[in-house]
C-alpha cells in the first residue's frame, strides 16, 4: 500500500502530519468537552449556589430522572414529531420535488424560486424568528390579508398552533440545503439512462421512482443524515419564536436541555440530557450510514 502512495508524501510524512494537525486538535477538543459532559452527568453539579463548587457524585440518579419524571419523554416525543415533519417530510421531500421540477430549466421562475429558497437559508435565525412571529401573530400579515377580509375572527397562530408554525418556519429555513444537494445529485444522473427509460415506456413518475431515486440513493442518505442531526439538536429558531411554549408545546430536547441547565441551573441533569441526545443521534446516524452502503 505504501508503494502505491505518492513518492513525495512517503518521503515527507511530517508534511502530511502537519496538515492533519488542525483536524486532530479539533477532534481532541470535541472529545474533551464530550468527556466532561459525560462525567458531569453522574453528578449533582449546579450552575449557582453551594452545589456549583461542592458537587457530589450521584451515580445513575440523573438518568433515572429522565424516565421517571415528566419532561424528558414529552420533549423527546415533541422532537420526534418536529424532526419527522420538518426534516424528513418537509425539507427532504420538498427539496427533492423542487430539484426534480426545476431540473434542466433555465427560466425566470427557477431564479425566483431559488432566490426565495436561499433567502430563508441565509437569514439569521433571530431575524427569521421575528419575521415568522410577526407574520403569524394576531395582528400579523396572515390575519390582515386573509383572515380579516374573509370576515373571520383573527387567529393567533403562534399561540394556537405553535408546533405546526415552528415546523413550517424550519422547513422554509432549511429546505435550501436539500434542494442544492438533490439538484447536484440529479444533474449527475446520466441523461442517456433517463432517455432509455422513457423509450421503454416509463412514465415520468416511474422514471423518478425506478431510475433516478436508486441512482441517487447515497445522496438521499447523506441528506437525511445531516438534516436529521441538525433538526434533532436545533435550538435558535424555536427558542426565539416560542421559548418552548405555550406551555410545553414546542419544548424540544434542545430547549428542554437549555431550560434545565441554565434557566433552572441543573447542570448535572442537563449533562445527562445531552448524553441521552448524543446516544439517540448516534443511533440515528448508524441507521443512515447503513443506508449509505451499496446494496449487495
From TrEMBL:
Residue ranges the record marks as coiled coil: none
Cited SUPFAM superfamilies: MetI-like
Keyword set includes Transit peptide: no
Subcellular location per the Swiss-Prot or TrEMBL entry: Cell membrane
Membrane topology: Multi-pass membrane protein
Keywords for this protein: Cell membrane, Membrane, Transmembrane, Transmembrane helix, Transport
CDD domains for the chain: TM_PBP2 (cd06261)
Transmembrane segments: 12-39, 76-100, 112-132, 161-182, 225-247, 267-289
Protein name from the UniProt record: ABC transmembrane type-1 domain-containing protein
Organism: Devosia elaeis
